Amino acid sequence: MSNKTQAPVNTTSQSPVKPWWLGIVVVLMGVVCLYSASELDNTARYSAIGPGMFVTAIGIGLVLLGLLLLIQIARGEKFEPQDTENAEGSTPMDKRAFFIALAAAFVPVFIIELLGLPVTAMVSFTLVTMAFGSKKIVLNLIIGFILGSASWYLFSLLGLQLGEFIPLLGV
Amino acid sequence: MDTLGLLLQGFEVALTPTNLFWALVGSTLGTAIGILPGIGPALTIALLLPVTVSVGPVSAFIMFAGVLYGAMYGGSTTSILINTPGEAGSMMTALEGNKMARSGRGAAALATAAIGSFVAGTLATLALTFAAPYIAELAFYFKPADYFALTIMAFTSVAVVMGSSRVRGFISLFIGLGFGVMGIDNMTGQPRMTFGFADLLDGMELTVVLVSLFAVGEIIYVASRYKNQKDDIVSVKGGMWMSKSDWKRSFMPWIRGTAIGFPMGALPGGGSEIPTMLSYTLEKNLTKHKDEFGKGAIEGVAGPEAANNAAAAGVLVPLLTLGLPTSATAAILLAAFQNFGLQPGPFLFTSNPELIWGLIASLYIGNAMLLVLNLPLIGIWVKLLLIPKPQLYAGILIFAMIGIWGVSGSVFDLACMALVGVMGYVMRVYDFPIPPLLIGLILGPMTENQLRTALAAGQGNPAVLVESPMSIVFLTVSFLFLFVPFLIKHLRAVA
């Protein structure tokens, strides 16, 4: 299946480095599927239609698609980052902003059980605003905390289980 | 009872004060999120899902319908006034609409978009009203093999049509299918692909995946490529209404747009991009004012806007009658049905007529409400664009976090949110379409079920899959979809 669907855009490609890892990751995902399918007990049922059949099919599909992607990459397939509102694909990546935004997404995993939703919301909120280049850190901390507390109160009223206000303090 | 009687009953349901209130909430929210960047109808419904459990299914779906239609109205507003089409369906509107606004005809552009959306929404809802029961009846004859072939058709069409590369579309789909098999196999009770995590025994929640891909992935992506520029909002001048010639020039494009949009929206993979492009191309060829195209021709706003709204209503046809989602928003609506323990499809029309017809009736009401909300109040809505971007995106992350933490209270799900968010980032950078993943995730289990049932009935012989004419047709169409990219390429070249 040759691929000729790319819109004829003449911008220079984002990076001269070929993203081999993309294809490899897809193949690996397929291998994971195939491996876990092989671990499933397929005996004692119609051998073809046990719980492993569909997983095997997905695994084969992913491996084949990953290989196709690798062939495309070898042939110099261009990957144009998507344009969305407030971001243009052609803009170079801002690594600092990327890592701060990433931290904002991962922070809740580590602190929400101890510090509760309002404080976690405050931290994540401020990190995202920093990633977007806002310099008013104190103001953002305050807005984040108010937004977090207000949503905590409101959504708890609506029946969501959001935990204690600040579990560490037992309140 | 005939369709009309059922529809009247539906209006009785939809016109109760409580449900009118929810329709208003949905329409207002929908318009707001249509105008705001970074948040769309699918994400909104996913985030609303946990709080609707106490509301009850009828009111919840009436609100969701308002969100679905409202987002279309809001999307056209930003396309016209600041030239930022939030989604593929509004791209064509921005083309002519923004030019109109710049030459001082913003009010007329907004009016033809809003009235066109209303006309198209109403006509398409009428078509839905009368077509849906017949299609649902047809679906009673479907055997598992037919359903299997139908889902295959949905898969290929979505993987091919959404996005720029078939290979990447299918990769997205297969990753979704992989997520879909996680958890306990409901036919044999065996845990699959759980990798020893007890949290995965229940499988991957569509809401978690959707919120992570759309909200978290988008926030990281936009942050890393943020263009800090003030939105150039064109102020609305030139009176609130359209001139006589505007009406004359808009009317037929509205009708033609609806005629294109509704059936294409109802087809799997039709989406909103192709019908709006088709409508734009058609109007460009039919108009007597060819010289105005590219400089702000009202036909180029009226047609695509109508097509866009009609397609949104069309998406509800396969969803309600066959339980087949064909867009990201439809996928989350299907998850919402399942959340309430309901399965859309032919049986819903007989087992739950109050819900189905209440929902359809509320589409008429929501459309009228949106016209009123949008035309005179446009000045207020535009004020939403004044929210500074850093705080806006930060706020979206908070709501995503609440949406996930509030449902499960599980740190594991929050870790999934961050990881799948990173995947959403990679998918945006390397241009993988996201809807196929969601469709694969929600439809995968159904496909597998039908496939295994069909094969079991045929004692493992795969020939049962191509025994009925229906399944042969579906599978052939699935194959033909692989060639659709050439058609799109041709359309893009013309437009």
Structure, explained:
The complex is a heterodimer of chains A (171) and B (495). Chain A has four helices and no strands. Chain A has helices at residues 20-39, 52-74, 95-131, 137-157. Chain A is flat and about 50 Å long. Mean pLDDT of chain A is 85; it is low at 1-14. By secondary structure, chain B is an all-alpha fold. Chain B has one domain (3-494). Chain B has helices at residues 3-14, 17-35, 41-48, 57-82, 91-139, 144-161, 166-181, 206-224, 244-266, 273-286, 299-314, 316-322, 328-339, 346-351, 353-374, 378-382, 389-408, 411-429, 435-457, 469-481, 484-494; strands spanning 183-184, 191-192. In chain B, a hairpin with a 6-residue loop joins strand 1 (183-184) and strand 2 (191-192). The termini of chain B are far apart. The chains are: A mainly alpha (171), B mainly alpha (495).
Biggest interface pair, counts:
A-B, 88 and 82 residues
Cα Rg of chain B:
22 Å
Specify the number of helices of chain A.
4
Q: How are helices and strands ordered from N to C of chain A?
A: HHHH
* Stretches with pLDDT under 50, minimum 5 residues of chain A: 1-14
* Overall average pLDDT of chain A: 85
The main sheet of chain B comes to: 2 strands, antiparallel
- Uncertain regions spanning at least 5 consecutive residues of chain B: none
Question: Summed up, what is this model?
Answer:
The complex is a heterodimer of chains A (171) and B (495). Chain A has 171 residues and is an all-alpha fold.
Give the SSE map.
The complex is a heterodimer of chains A (171) and B (495).
Chain A: H1 20-39, H2 52-74, H3 95-131, H4 137-157
Helix pairs in contact in A: 1-2, 3-4
Chain B: H1 3-14, H2 17-35, H3 41-48, H4 57-82, H5 91-139, H6 144-161, H7 166-181, E1 183-184, E2 191-192, H8 206-224, H9 244-266, H10 273-286, H11 299-314, H12 316-322, H13 328-339, H14 346-351, H15 353-374, H16 378-382, H17 389-408, H18 411-429, H19 435-457, H20 469-481, H21 484-494
Antiparallel strand pairs in B: 1-2
Helix pairs in contact in B: 1-15, 2-4, 2-15, 3-4, 3-8, 3-13, 4-5, 4-11, 4-13, 4-15, 5-9, 5-11, 5-12, 5-15, 6-7, 6-19, 6-20, 7-19, 8-17, 8-18, 9-10, 9-11, 10-11, 10-21, 13-19, 17-18
